[in-house]
Amino acid sequence: MKHGSLFSGIGGFDLAAEWMGWENIFHCEWNPFGQKILKHYWPKAESFEDITKTDFTKYANKID
User: Fold this and answer.
1) How far, in Å, are 8, 51, 52 from residue 42 at the CA level?
2) In contact, 28 and 5? CB cutoff 8 Å
3) DSSP character for 1?
4) Contact by Cβ (8 Å): 59, 40
5) Digit-coded pLDDT (tens) for 8-57
6) E strand or H helix at 63, and its extent?
7) Cβ atoms 24, 5 nearer than 8 A
8) Do the beta carbons of residue 24 and residue 17 sit within 8 Å?
9) Is 0.90 topped by the overall pTM?
10) Whether the Cβ atoms of residue 7 and residue 26 lie closer than 8 Å to each other
11) What is the pLDDT of residue 53?
């Protein structure tokens, strides 16, 4: 399955999704510390900062 994470924090749900075998496609977190953690553990996932300024339509029907 493919997972997209909003309000990601330091990646708790991203980690759980990974443990279940899901692929983390993107995460969205405004906090710089959280961004650093997310980019370290999921460097291939696309990273977004501001949910109010991000267009997620390219992920329509691509996230399970």
Assistant:
1) 12, 19, 22
2) yes
3) -
4) no
5) 999 999 999 999 999 999 999 999 999 999 999 999 999 999 999 999 99
6) none
7) yes
8) yes
9) no
10) no
11) 95
The ranges assigned to domains in the chain are: 2-53
Q: Indicate the residue type of 1.
A: M
Of the candidates 12, 1, 2, 64, the one whose C-alpha atom is nearest the C-alpha of residue 38 is 12
With residue 7 as reference, give the H or E element that holds it.
none
Those residues whose C-beta lies under 8 Å from the C-beta of residue 45, and which sit 6 or more positions away, are 14, 24, 25, 26, 27, 38
Compute the residue count for the chain.
64
The amino acid occupying position 50 is D
Taking CA atoms, 21 is separated from 1, 2, 52, in Å, by: 7, 9, 29
Phi, psi at 23, each rounded to 5°: -95, 125
